Amino acid sequence: MSDNVVTGGGDTLVPSGAPAVDIDEPRRGTSWARYTLGKAGGALVSLLMVIVLGFFAFRILPGDPVRSLTHGRRVSVDQLEAIRRELGLDQPLPNQFWRYLTDLLRGDLGYSYTNNEEVSRLILDRMGPTLLLTGTAFAISLALGLWLGQRAAWRRGSLFDRVHTGIALTLWSVPTFWFGLLLLLLFAGTLHWFPTGGMVTAGANLEGLAYVLDVAHHLVLPAITMAAVVYAQYLLVMRASLLEEMTADYLVTARAKGLNEDRVRRVHAVPNALLPTVTLIFLAIGGLISGGVSVETVFSWPGLGYLTFQALSAPDFPVLQGTFVVFSAIVIAMNFIADLVYRVLDPRLRTA
Amino acid sequence: MALIGAGAIVFGGTVAGAGAAAAEEEGAQARISLTGDVETLNPFLSVLSTSDSILMYQYEPLVAWAAEDNSEYPAIAESWEANADGTEWTFHLEPDAMWSDGEPIVADDVIWTIEAIQDNDALKMAKGSLVENIESIEAPDELTVVMTMENPQAPNPGADLPIVPRHVWAELDDPAAYENDADTVGSGPFIITESSKTNGVTMTANPHYRHGEAKIGSLVWVPYKSSDAAVQALKTGEVDLVDGLTIAQFDSLDGVEGITTISAKGNSFSALAINPGAKDIDGNDLGDGNPVLHDKVVRQAIVRAIDNETLRAKILQGLGDPGTGTVPPRYPTFHWNIAPEELPLAYDPDEANRMLDEAGYERGADGVRLDKSGNPIDLRIMGRSSSSNSQQAADFIGPWLEEIGIKTTVSMLSDAQVNDESVLGRYDMYFTGWGMGPDPDFMMSINLCSSRPNADGSGATSESNWCDPAFDELYAQQHSETDPEKRAALILEMQQLKYDAAVNNVMFFDARFQAYRSDRFTDAQLQPAEGGVLLRQNGPWGVYSLTPVDGAGTGDGAAADGGATGWWIAGGVAAAALVGGGIVLSRRRSQAGDRE
User: Fold this and answer.
1) Entry pTM
2) Which of B439, B428, B391, B432 is nearest to B406 (CA)?
């Protein structure tokens, strides 16, 4: 769970004085191509940085993987040497880097020290559960945040506004771990409404509908925990950007035409106010993959967040590198898409 | 959206407990919470205790550790003997023993297992050190295995090494890549039948187990990532056995109906190590320990100033056992059994002050003693931030050392960093702890001069960065002493020697807290029988001995009832949301149309 709101996706283009191209006019290929290429180039440079950083950054971490693996166990010097050879850690750093690079180009993320599995398979295995959890939580928090945000802005200063902003901010500031544990104690431990952890009932081997229901049953608490903690950012961004639009002249026009308040808000103000949230949404989608370490830990969810967390303590370099590169690549890709979508949404950016 | 979709289709029909029905046909199912991931089920690769604790139920070694008292006990071998100097060990296999698939267990299985590890680096990962001293291994007949050792060896080489079935493993192209997670073959009481990251690991009773089939039909290891959740699961009945509780969790379960808690003798100690002047394998100085600690008197005064029994009272609420030597009381044969007040360096701050005065460490104006160069003695204490016990202990030790004129600075670091710094001797004092098996040989060996690391920290690991030729000599003697009593006496002497060096103040021997649903299972065999553990034994006895209580459900009964309630509520909320949403939408649609 990234507890910091990321803002700004790339460079903001200052609208020039040139007349805006109308949305229905055929686009001028050159400018589109140039814009896209520029953004793609930027994304590619970022990706290269990530690949290099991914290798070296984690090697600054304290700890010797081989020692951690064998800590407190009966090992001999020969055995340590054998493990070092086995993991390729006996090679000089440049060799290790070269191997990492060539493997990466072949799409091979290496082999985990602690899990005895291909890193790519580890990531794929855990990606499903993580996306299910984060996706559900994201959908809930987005719907809730945007809906409450626009209502709160429209009735700024009202009781509704104060209460909802207050609740959202309170939830935003509680520690995820603690909040999750609280829900677990109450709804799983005391009331027995939901299971205490996991994604399915272990050893039950359910199939078909029973399996779907079982997963959904396990999903309720972690998804609610995750959504409750993050929906505030959507609420606040929506609220703020709608407030900016509320004094705009075109709303006066709309009201003058006799439209009811509800329509003025939905059809006129909200679409314009949605722009800043688009950035936020794309950034959030990029972050979905990394999951929520705290939520996954509290609810024993078999996802990626926990995998990364564990890899840090070893340190399990291949897993750290792999997850770092994959997550970063997804964030970079999402940013790139956000840039393109932005251009479609905001006519002011379409000036050649 | 998934949530609403799921909730909306719930009308009647409970969900949880479906697995229980299947298990009922094959006998009861015991569910054990598994904290931490299973990194592999391949016995050659499993280096983390989580996996080892599962594999212990599937593969037997030649020689096991008895449930009663952790003494050597027949497993694949029914008897064994060593020659006088421990250079040749002979094992006689139990005739008519079978693998879980009905194949006979023979000498070839043992030989294949050992040679596979010796010949293949990839298989050395977990058990390499166990076979290093085996020079050659032969089978004069199907039921006899003779090992010739490179160096004399008193510790039984047949202990701790899980033997795998040759007829399965020899067929594999790459044994190191074998997952061993479904339809496996073993000789222990339970065999892995399936495993997945989400489903945990399921094991079923082995009908051919040498002591008879277990009374429970299957075991499920349920993955939990936080022990708090596991405790809740025990309360709701989603799991039946939980290990590794904190003292707070242990207290919260104490007296809960249907649950029995166990406060067992652990297999580890918690200690404060004191740097006596670390040196590398070539005898060059290593690290940056404060030179004042090279003086044994200072180290002994520090031990004298620390009240270990108060630490045990505060940190373990008086549970666990008083710290003495290295071997915990779980292994009475080698444990130094002495009352805390009778220890040579028992808590006595006045004596500590007297020693320091006598040695000429005078106090400065602020009460802090000065070292021989006239600098105030200020020692660093390092600990793992992941250990609340260390933080607690540091809070007490600081003021105690202040009483004898020694200033301290505490820093809590990540586990990996503490490992690094301690190996390289970059500490004055640090909190440490070691767990050990029933034979103390390895634990002793990491105090040899030859266990000191290379200058860059690679190579061996020294437990306390201490080296004493007298200790080395005793080690060599016990390592080839085949008379058990004489060997025990030597091991005791070694512990006393190390204690006297004051390089490792054992604060206490840890307790291990566990709990299980005694309303579902009875007759749990603890190891050792007195004050022992049920889970994480040196052997499969505890879980193997569990007897289902007549009429008790097969697990998650509570979860099943609660599950239904949860569903009705979730369903109700979802339905309300759908209906509400529908009304809003239809109202909207009715006024749609006029685009402005």
Assistant:
1) 0.82
2) B428
